[in-house]
Design brief:
With 981 residues, the protein is mostly beta strands. 5% of the residues lie in helices and 52% in strands. It contains six helices and 49 strands. The strands form seven sheets. The chain has a 22-stranded antiparallel β-barrel. A hairpin with a 2-residue loop joins β13 and β14. The radius of gyration is 31 Å and the shape is globular.
Length: 981
C-alpha cells in the first residue's frame, strides 16, 4: 500500500514524521518487539512498513506507554479501519484472557455466559464475542484461519492462552486481500516472530491466581526464548513460547421462574378464585468452575538475503474445562400453583410480589449434580516465504494445515423431593426463598429422579494455500497493484447425541408405572443408596447476601462423572419397583451413525487490489475486488416416522442422505485516507462482506414425525390417510444455507493531537445493510414414503430470510498527561464509547415467535446480542518503576435468547417461549506492577474489583418485564513475577 507521507506541522515539508520514527525506534530498542510478522499479503496486517530507524542509544519506551504508542501507530498506518491492543512486554497482554482483552476495543462486546443463548450459566472470563453487535466474527492467527471444532467457524477465544499473544487487532472493514468471512469484523491474534528481536530474548512469567469466592489458588506461567544468528547463509532465528494457565471460580445464582395467569387462589374466602399472575417458583444453584489451558508456539525464520525470507510456525492450544453445579429447581405443574391466603402476601394489582406458594398436593422439586467436562485442542502448522525478485516486485506464499477437535460430556443426575410449600419474596431486589428446612434435611423425603447425558465428539481439519504477487511503482498516482489466490479444503465430523433425559421415579408415574402412594426412597440396593448423596448446605451462599434455604440432599459428583456405569446402576436398581413400562436404559452409542454428520467445504478465491496515493494531497487508498467460490457437501441421515396407523410413511428407519450446495460471491472494497490538515486524518471505507453459516447449522440430518390429528381416533389395525395426520419435522439444520451478506460503510475523523505522546481522539460512523439472515422458519417440504409417494411435512429449519440495518458511532480518546507537574505527569487515560442502533425485517417462523405463558405475543424484538450502548474507561499511571492501571468496561441491556432452557414449555397447550435479556453489566479490573530492575518486574493483577452482579431479565406482557436471575462471582487476583533477559 501507499504510505501516507506526514508533513511537519510548521514547515509542511515531507519529514517522514520524525517523532514517530523516534518513537518506533525507541520501542524497538526498549523491548525489541516490533511486530513485523512475515509479510504475506492476505494476513491482513495492514500496517505500513516503518521508515528507516535512526540508531539511538539507551532510549526505552515500554509498558503501558509503549503499548499505547504501538496501537496508535497500527491504527494510523492501517489501510482500513483497525483497532488494536498490543503487548510489547512479553506475556503482558493487559487481561488474563483474550476474550476480556477484546472487550477493551471500541465496538467489541462480550457476553458473560458459558455458551451463547444460555442465560442459566455465568462465565467468569466471558464467552461469545460480538463486533458492532454481530456474532459473525472471523478469527485469525497471524492472518490465517483458526477455529475450534465446536461446529462453528471461529476460534473460542477463551481457549487461547493470552500469554502467547503479542497483540490483538480487530478489523472493522476490509480490503480485497483480506480473507472473507468477517461480517461483523475480523479478529487477528498476533504472535511474536524471532527476527522481531534484535538479539536473544528470554522472558519468564509466573502467576498465582486466586478467586476469593472459590477460595482456591491456581498457577499460571509462560516462558519465551528467542534467538537469532547472522551466518554465511543469512539471518536465522528461532522462537519457542510455552504457556500453562489454571483457573478456579465459583458462581452462585438465584432464579425466579416465569409467571402464569391462574385462577387457583381464593384470597377473600368468597368461594370465587381470583385471577392472579403467580410464578412457577424460585430456585438457586452453586456452580464450581475449573479450567486448565496450555499453549505452545514455535517459529523459525530464515532470511538468506534482503530479498528472500522463509518461515515455519507451529501453534497448539489445548483447553480442559470442568464445571459442576448443585442446583435446586422446581419441576411442578405451573398451572396448579396457588397463593396461600392464610399466610402474609403482597400483590401488585393481580401480580404476585410475595407470599407462600402451594399446589394441589406437594410441589415437586429437583436437586441435581450436573457436570460438564470439555476438552478441546487446536493445532496449526504453517510454512511460507516472501521473495522480492526485483526492486518493485515481490511474491509471497504460505501453506497451512490446521486440525481441531473437541470432546464433551454433559451429565446430570437428579433426586426429587416434594416440598409442602415455597415462600418467595421478589419485592426488594434479590428474591428471598424459603422452604420447610426440617423437611428438606430429612433424606427419607427424597427419591431418585432422573438422569440426562449429552455427548459431543467433533473433529475438523483444513488445508489452506495462498499466493500473492505485488508490483510497486516509483512515481505517479498508482502505488502498486496486487493479485492473489487462496484455496482451502476443510472437513468436519460432528457427533452429537442430544440430551437423553431418562426418568427414574417421577410423580406422574404413580398409579400406573409405579404403585400408588409414596415413591421409592434413596436406598434401592447395595450399590444405589444414600451413600451416593450428600447434604448440600450452600455455605456462604451469594457471599451471605441472599436469603435461601441451605439444607438439601443431592447426588455426589461421581454419580455424574461416572457415566455410563453410574446411570446403569441407578436405572437397574429401579427395575424391581416398576409395575410396567420402564426398565434398564441403553445409553446412546457414539458410533451409531444417526448421531454422526460429516461435512466438507472447498473454497477458491482470487483478488485484485490497486493501491494509490498522492504525496502532494496527503491522500491514499486502495480499491479492489475479491471473488470466492464455495462448495459444500454434507452426509447424514433422514429418520422416518414410526406410526402404526401409517405404515406407508416408514417404520423409523434411518436412510443415509447427501446434500451439496455451491455459490459464488463477488466482494468489492474501497478504502480512502486523507490527511487534510496536520495530524487530522479522514477515512472512508465501503465493502461487501459475507459470513458463511456454521457447520453445525448445515448438517444433513432430518427426523420426520407423524401424529394423528385431534379428533381422529383410528380403530386398531386401521390405516389412516395423510389428511388425518400431522406430518412434521424439526431440526435446526439446513445444508442449503448460503452466507449472510452485508454492504458496509465506515467514515471517521482521527485527530493525533500529540502524536509523539500517545494523544489521539477519533469518531467513527458505521452502517451495515445486512441480508439473508439465518432464521428458523417453518415450511412444507416433500419427503418420500416407503410406498414411493411423496408427502408434505411441515419442517422447521434455518433458512436465509430477512434484512437488518445496523448503524452507530464509536468515539475514542487516548492521552498521557505529561504536562502536569510531578508526580502527576505519569498519568494517562483511555476512553471509548460505542452507540449501536438496528432495525430488522425478519419474518419469524411459528416456532421462533416469542409467546407469553398466556398465549399473547410480543412486539418486534431487537437484534439478539446487540447492546445499544457500551463504553470502556481506563486510567494509567506510569512513572519510574511503577505501572498502575484501572479499567472499567460496561455494556447496556441486550437480548440473549428467545425461549432458552427454563423459559419455554407447552403448559395448557400453549407453546410459550419468553424473550430473555442480559441486564446492563459493568466490571472494574486493574493491575499494579513495580520494576525491581531492568530484568525483574513484580505485580498484582485484579479482576472484578467491584464484585459485579450479572442479572438477566424475562419479558412478560401481563406480569411485566422483571429480573429473573442474579449471579455473583469471584474477585480474582493474580500475583505475578516477570523476568526478561
Amino acid at each position: 500500500m501507499s504510505t501516507l507521507r506526514h508533513r511537519h506541522p510548521a514547515t509542511g515539508k515531507a519529514a517522514s514524521d520524525a517523532t514517530r520514527t523516534f518513537r518506533r525506534s525507541a520501542i524497538a530498542l526498549g523491548v525489541a518487539a516490533m511486530l513485523a510478522a512475515p509479510a504475506y499479503a492476505q494476513e491482513a496486517t495492514a500496517t505500513a512498513q516503518p521508515d528507516e530507524a535512526t540508531e539511538l542509544d539507551k532510549v526505552v519506551v515500554t509498558g503501558i506507554r509503549g503499548s499505547v504508542y504501538r496501537a496508535q501507530d497500527i491504527k494510523r498506518d492501517a489501510n482500513t479501519f483497525v483497532d488494536s491492543v498490543t503487548a510489547l512486554d512479553i506475556g503482558a497482554l493487559p487481561d488474563r484472557s483474550v476474550t476480556e482483552t477484546l472487550s477493551r476495543i471500541p465496538g467489541v462486546t462480550i457476553d458473560r455466559f458459558l455458551s451463547v443463548g444460555d442465560p442459566e450459566h455465568f462465565s467468569a472470563e466471558g464467552g461469545g464475542v460480538q463486533v458492532r453487535g454481530l456474532t459473525q466474527v472471523r478469527s485469525e492467527l497471524n492472518g490465517r484461519d483458526s477455529f475450534s471444532a465446536s461446529g462453528g467457524r471461529a476460534l473460542s477465544f477463551q481457549d487461547v492462552p493470552s500469554e502467547l499473544m503479542a497483540g490483538v487487532d480487530v478489523y472493522k472493514n476490509q480490503t480485497a486481500e483480506m480473507i472473507e468471512g468477517g461480517l461483523g469484523g475480523t479478529v487477528d491474534l498476533r504472535t511474536f516472530m524471532p527476527l522481531d528481536f534484535e538479539e536473544s530474548r528470554l522472558g519468564v512469567s509466573f502467576s498465582a491466581n486466586r478467586g476469593d469466592f472459590a477460595d482456591e489458588v491456581k498457577p499460571s506461567g509462560s516462558i519465551l526464548y528467542s534467538n537469532r544468528w547472522e551466518t554465511g547463509a543469512g539471518d536465522f532465528g528461532i522462537l519457542v513460547d510455552v504457556a500453562h494457565s489454571e483457573l478456579a471460580t465459583r458462581t452462585d445464582g438465584m432464579f425466579v421462574r416465569p409467571f402464569f395467569n391462574t385462577a387457583n387462589s381464593d384470597l377473600d374466602g368468597d368461594g370465587t378464585n381470583e385471577q392472579l399472575w403467580l410464578p412457577r417458583g424460585a430456585d438457586w444453584r452453586t456452580l464450581e468452575y475449573e479450567r486448565e489451558r496450555q499453549g505452545a508456539y514455535v517459529a523459525l525464520q530464515w532470511r538468506p538475503n534482503e530479498n528472500l525470507e522463509l518461515f515455519a510456525t507451529a501453534f497448539q492450544s489445548s483447553y480442559d474445562e470442568l464445571w459442576y453445579e448443585d442446583a435446586i429447581f422446581v419441576s411442578n405443574d405451573p398451572l396448579q400453583v396457588r397463593l396461600d391466603a392464610s399466610q402474609p402476601y403482597e400483590l401488585d394489582g393481580n401480580v404476585f410480589v410475595s407470599g407462600r406458594l402451594r399446589s394441589n398436593g406437594d410441589i415437586p422439586m429437583g436437586t441435581d449434580i450436573r457436570a460438564s467436562h470439555r476438552e478441546s485442542k487446536t493445532t496449526d502448522y504453517s510454512v511460507g516465504m516472501k521473495w522480492a525478485f526485483s526492486e518493485r516486485t515481490e511474491f509471497s506464499t504460505d501453506l497451512q494445515f490446521i486440525k481441531a477437535d473437541t470432546r464433551a460430556l454433559d451429565s446430570t443426575v437428579s433426586l426429587g423431593v416434594n416440598v409442602p410449600y415455597i415462600d418467595v419474596d421478589v419485592g426488594s431486589g434479590r428474591p428471598s426463598i424459603g422452604v420447610d428446612e426440617q423437611f428438606t434435611a430429612n433424606p427419607a423425603n427424597y427419591y431418585w429422579g432422573f438422569t440426562m447425558d449429552h455427548r459431543d465428539d467433533n473433529e475438523a481439519e483444513e488445508v489452506a494455500w495462498r499466493a500473492d504477487l505485488k508490483h510497486s511503482f516509483d512515481a505517479g498516482f498508482v502505488d502498486s497493484i496486487q493479485f492473489g489466490v487462496r484455496l482451502t479444503d476443510r472437513d468436519a465430523t460432528s457427533v452429537d447425541t442430544g440430551y437423553d433425559w431418562q426418568p427414574v421415579f417421577q410423580t406422574w408415574m404413580q398409579g400406573w408405572a409405579l404403585p400408588a402412594g409414596a415413591l421409592p426412597g434413596l436406598d434401592l440396593d447395595g450399590t444405589v443408596n444414600s451413600s451416593l448423596v450428600n447434604l448440600q448446605t450452600f455455605d456462604n451462599f451469594y457471599r451471605g447476601d441472599a436469603n435461601t434455604p441451605g439444607a438439601f440432599y443431592a447426588p455426589v459428583l461421581s454419580t455424574a462423572l461416572n457415566f455410563p456405569q453410574s446411570y446403569l446402576d441407578i436405572h437397574g436398581a429401579a427395575i424391581p419397583y416398576y409395575t410396567c413400562c420402564y426398565g434398564q436404559i441403553t445409553p446412546r452409542d457414539l458410533d451409531d451413525p444417526q448421531w454422526r454428520n460429516t461435512q466438507g467445504e472447498k473454497t477458491t478465491a482470487g483478488y485484485f487490489m490497486l493501491s494509490f496515493g498522492s504525496d502532494e494531497a496527503l491522500f491514499d487508498g486502495n480499491v479492489g475486488v475479491r471473488v470466492v467460490r464455495t462448495e459444500n457437501e454434507a452426509d447424514g441421515f433422514l429418520v422416518y416416522p414410526n406410526l402404526q396407523f401409517a405404515p406407508y410413511l416408514g417404520a423409523g428407519e434411518s436412510v443415509p442422505i447427501t446434500a451439496s450446495n455451491s455459490y459464488t460471491d463477488v466482494l468489492p472494497s474501497l478504502n480512502l485516507r486523507w490527511e487534510f490538515a496536520p495530524n487530522l486524518i479522514a477515512r472512508f471505507a465501503a465493502s461487501k462482506a459475507i459470513a458463511r453459516p456454521a457447520f453445525s447449522d448445515m448438517q444433513a440430518y432430518q427426523q420426520l414425525s407423524a401424529a394423528v390429528r385431534d379428533g381422529v381416533t383410528p380403530d386398531p389395525g386401521e390405516t389412516v390417510t395423510p389428511d388425518d395426520l400431522d406430518l412434521t419435522g424439526s431440526s435446526t439444520d439446513n445444508p442449503y444455507l448460503e452466507p449472510m451478506k452485508a454492504n458496509q460503510f465506515d467514515l471517521s475523523l482521527e485527530w493525533y493531537f500529540a502524536p509523539d505522546k500517545g494523544g489521539m481522539a477519533w469518531v467513527n460512523f458505521f452502517y451495515k445493510d445486512v441480508e439473508d439472515y439465518f432464521r428458523q422458519q417453518t415450511e412444507l417440504v416433500p419427503y418420500p414414503g416407503v410406498d414411493g409417494n411423496e408427502y408434505d411435512y411441515l419442517i422447521s429449519r434455518l433458512v436465509n430470510i430477512g434484512t437488518a440495518k445496523i448503524q452507530g458511532a464509536e468515539l475514542g480518546w487516548n492521552q498521557f498527561f505529561d504536562f502536569l507537574p510531578a508526580p502527576f505527569d505519569g498519568l494517562g487515560m483511555s476512553a471509548n464509547y460505542t452507540y449501536i442502533d438496528s432495525s430488522t425485517e425478519i419474518p419469524a417462523g411459528s416456532n421462533a415467535v416469542p409467546i407469553d405463558t398466556d398465549g399473547s405475543t410480543f412486539d418486534d424484538l431487537p437484534a439478539d446480542g446487540l447492546s445499544k450502548n457500551s463504553y470502556n474507561a481506563a486510567v494509567f499511571y506510569e512513572k519510574g518503576p511503577w505501572q498502575v492501571r484501572l479499567a472499567y468496561n460496561w455494556r447496556s441491556e441486550y437480548l440473549l435468547s428467545v425461549g432458552p432452557n427454563g423459559y419455554n414449555g407447552g403448559d395448557g397447550g400453549i407453546p410459550w417461549k419468553l424473550p430473555v435479556y442480559s441486564d446492563s453489566f459493568g466490571q472494574l479490573d486493574g493491575s499494579i506492577f513495580y520494576k525491581v530492575s531492568d530484568n525483574v518486574q513484580i505485580g498484582l493483577e485484579m479482576n472484578n474489583l467491584n464484585n459485579a452482579e450479572q442479572r438477566t431479565i424475562m419479558d412478560q406482557n401481563g406480569a411485566g418485564k422483571r429480573i429473573t436471575s442474579w449471579y455473583v462471582n469471584d474477585r480474582r487476583y493474580a500475583a505475578t513475577l516477570r523476568f526478561t533477559f
